[in-house]
Write a structure and sequence with these properties.
Length: about 375
């Protein structure tokens, strides 16, 4: 099977969509070795992207634009000119890994698959500029209409595709994503201690990981922690990048006089995250909405109990043994933090149940299910 991927985010994005793209490719290399993989990549200038491409030498075919127009205007290559390259390779499947596929593929004998992660821009339009919403609607609608199979990363996204974009339910397949294998194995105590020492984590702590933005709801978590802090020993550690919203969080920490108990970390390497998860007493993630919620999966693999939000995708990603809260209620979040922090038997139940549940998201199982979806699309 010859499978091509639009791999811009795999080499240019080192958050959620990029992690998903790299995970798909790495999983197929490890668990689907008979497949021939082609990555269509615009010019890579960042160090991380170049390193990743180099690590795949001999395992995949990397295709970059070779014309002056394609090299100079990579969006044009990705949207229009890439069809000529795909035709030359005689692909069986072309998979758009993040919401879009190129134009001009309809006349080619290649099956088209697109992964749709979420429609947050329609659920929460206030978080997105008008022009972004227009572009997303055009790209997402085109991809769903012209693909032979639409992969939704969760049941919530499937429902949204049907509701908002009127996608034919028969075209949609739910395929859960996985997380990096870095989170699968327990680290030795000295590795955990090294990371705790680096970030000066001298007390038990509650962890939250995610970009600082309103949808992630760190301000409400902070207010809840302030309410609970006198009743628990643990500090609060917030990990993520951000700008204006992050500044508001840092300012609020000062206003609440919690500078000695709340740490905001923005220089954490991906390789250090497993140690932070495993060292944490619990993981608190009261997000308003997610495409899937990979930090929850990372936490469950790390054997760290999870507090997260009611509704949306969260029960799918966190399972029956997480503790669920109203993300808009400071009191609800504070009560859950106090409850889990003070109940060792509950924590053990959450850890064991969560670890059992999260195995369905192991990269091995995720890749084998994806291979089955590829086989389905080829026979229809």
């Amino acid at each position: 099977m010859r499978i091509g991927f639009e791999a811009k985010r795999a080499t240019h994005n080192f958050r959620g969509l990029g992690n998903y793209s790299r995970g798909i490719v790495e999983g197929l290399i490890e668990y689907g070795p008979k497949q021939e993989l082609f990555l269509y990549v615009p010019p890579v200038k960042n160090h991380k992207g170049k390193e990743w491409i180099e690590s795949l030498q001999g395992k995949v075919h990397v295709r970059l634009p070779d014309s002056f127009l394609g090299k100079s205007f990579s969006p044009i290559w990705r949207s229009f000119l890439i069809a000529d390259d795909i035709k030359k390779e005689k692909l069986d499947i072309f998979h758009g890994l993040s919401h879009e596929i190129p134009m001009r593929l309809d006349s080619l004998p290649v099956k088209k698959v697109v992964t749709m992660h979420d429609l947050i821009y329609l659920r929460y339009p206030e978080f997105f500029p008008w022009i972004d919403r227009v572009v997303y609607s055009q790209k997402f609608s085109y991809a769903c209409k012209h693909s032979d199979m639409v992969i939704a990363i969760c049941e919530q996204t499937k429902e949204d595709l049907i509701r908002f974009l009127k996608v034919d339910e028969k075209k949609i397949r739910v395929h859960y994503q996985s997380c990096s294998p870095l989170f699968y194995d327990q680290l030795p105590g000295d590795k955990l201690q090294d990371v705790k020492t680096k970030f000066q984590l001298n007390k038990p702590f509650i962890l939250n990981v995610g970009a600082f933005e309103e949808r992630k709801n760190q301000l409400t978590l902070l207010e809840a922690y302030a309410l609970a802090s006198s009743k628990i020993e643990a500090d609060l550690v917030l990990v993520g990048q951000g700008k204006a919203y992050k500044d508001r969080v840092v300012q609020r920490v000062a206003e609440l006089n919690l500078g000695q108990r709340v740490k905001v970390l923005n220089s954490v390497h991906h390789e250090e995250l497993p140690a932070l998860y495993q060292a944490a007493d619990l993981f608190c993630f009261p997000s308003l909405f997610e495409g899937f919620g990979i930090p929850i999966v990372e936490s469950l693999f790390s054997r760290t109990p999870v507090i997260t939000s009611h509704g949306s995708v969260f029960p799918e990603s966190a399972g029956p043994d997480a503790v669920y809260v109203d993300p808009l209620s400071v009191q609800s979040i504070a009560d859950a933090i106090i409850q889990v922090s003070g109940n060792a038997s509950l924590r053990e139940k959450m850890i064991s149940g969560g670890l059992e549940y999260v195995q369905r998201f192991h990269r091995r199982d995720s890749t084998l299910k994806l291979m089955d979806l590829y086989s389905q699309v080829l026979t229809h």
